[in-house]
Design goal:
By secondary structure, the protein is an alpha+beta fold. It contains 21 helices and nine strands. The protein has a domain of about 230 residues: Orthogonal Bundle (Hypothetical protein af1432), CATH 1.10.3210.10. The strands form three sheets. It has a four-stranded mixed β-sheet with strand order 3-4-7-8. The termini are far apart.
Length: about 400
């Protein structure tokens, strides 16, 4: 990044220097929209400081990726930095909160929406991103692949979305700082100093295992304390029941920001009362907590179905069942021990133990206060199977 430049003061990484292609990408309407998409959805109703945005996180991810590029001597640094900057471009309002719902409406998740914005494909044919990439001689297809998590680009892909990546090394630190929960603070430079690049793959030296374990601990603690916080889950569950009937009013959610969506919801006679309850933090109450099993979950759903208005209760599984594969808990990493590559889970008993904790799931049922006693009584025989969350 040569020539004219500007400095953006980031509260996590300090002064971040941008110029050339990065500066032009930041100035596009597509990227500026991220200023108004909160990183953690409505978690600010639980952690008042959690007002940071996808804009800040994307800038931070680009900065951390630049540290990877310098440490590993990446030749394709412009493509890496552009891809890192644009990796969250497709996030809809409130980030992950309604992604499954919006995908059922549009067939797009945030990764696919981001890919299409980068390529200028329907429904984002007005995107200014492809022209800028072409101006600087970058292949939009390669940038879109790296930004959307494709594994096709070797080390570049791994730096953006891998077991140890710039995305996570930024958001764990950033979310910790803004939530006031220091559990995810990770010294990523110590990790970078022990990374090894070989045969277009990343691994870590044996002396770096404690740093990697620290990252795993921080990741799991942040999920349990922030991302899976029971009240945040209740808020997002309530919001899903509000947004679900609004398909006709929300034509393309991936063009909206948080404020746009809130305006739509508060303008709707049906959505407004419940939306005001959420904003005033008059939330559902926890009615029952029980150990998870597919059979118990099925029985709970059957017990509730037809007895209560489905908009008045939430049945949640924490952690979500899909959060269990090695690529989700990010233990699929290799360590160099005695000159030989071995899986992290073999090299670190602590990492293996941490991975097992994610399998300890609970079913949490929350509901409107008017039916709290009825649901608590109905589910009491299941709730006795575990202690409270």
């Amino acid at each position: 990044m040569n020539g004219n430049f500007k400095i953006i003061q980031d509260p996590v990484h300090g002064p971040v220097r941008v110029s050339g292609i990065i500066g032009e990408l930041i100035d596009t309407p597509e990227f500026q929209r991220l200023r108004y998409v909160k990183q953690l959805g409505m978690s600010y109703l639980v952690y008042p400081g959690a007002n940071h945005t996808r804009f800040e996180h994307s800038l931070g991810t680009m900065f951390v990726a630049s540290q990877f590029a310098e440490r590993l001597e990446i030749d394709q640094s412009d493509m890496l930095l552009a891809s890192a900057l644009l990796h969250d471009l497709g996030h809809p309002p409130f980030s992950h909160s309604f992604e499954d719902l919006f995908q059922s409406w549009t067939g797009l998740d945030h990764a696919e929406a981001g890919r299409r914005i980068i390529l200028g494909k329907k429904p984002f044919t007005n995107s200014g991103i492809p022209g800028i990439l072409e101006k600087y001689g970058l292949d939009a297809v390669s940038v879109s692949k790296a930004a959307s998590g494709s594994k096709d680009l070797g080390v570049v892909s791994a730096i953006i979305s891998g077991p140890v990546d710039a995305d996570e090394l930024d958001y764990l630190n950033r979310d910790s700082i803004f939530c006031g929960i220091p559990l995810g603070l990770v010294d990523y430079k110590r990790i970078l100093n022990t990374l090894i690049r070989s045969n277009n793959r990343l691994s870590i030296e044996e002396k770096g295992i404690p740093n990697l374990e620290s990252l795993l601990i921080g990741r799991i603690l942040m999920y349990r304390s922030v991302y899976w916080h029971k009240t945040s889950r209740i808020i997002h569950g309530m919001m899903s029941t509000i947004v679900s009937p609004m398909k006709e009013e929300i034509e393309n959610p991936f063009l909206l920001n948080d404020g746009d969506l809130l305006t739509v919801l508060l303008s709707s006679e049906k959505a407004r009362p419940r939306m005001k309850e959420v904003l005033m933090r008059r939330l559902f109450k926890k009615a029952a907590v029980m150990s998870y099993s597919p059979d118990i979950l099925y029985s709970v759903k059957e017990s509730m179905s037809g007895r209560f208005d489905p908009d008045d209760y939430i049945i949640d599984v924490i952690p979500p069942p899909e959060f269990q594969s090695p690529d989700r808990i990010k233990t699929d990493f290799e360590v160099i021990v005695g000159g030989v590559r071995v899986p992290l889970l073999e090299a670190s008993p602590l990492a293996e133990s941490l991975a097992r904790t994610v399998a300890m799931r609970k079913i949490v049922v929350s509901c409107h206060g008017s039916i709290l006693e009825k649901i608590t009584g109905l589910l009491s025989r299941y709730a006795k199977t575990t202690s409270d969350a």
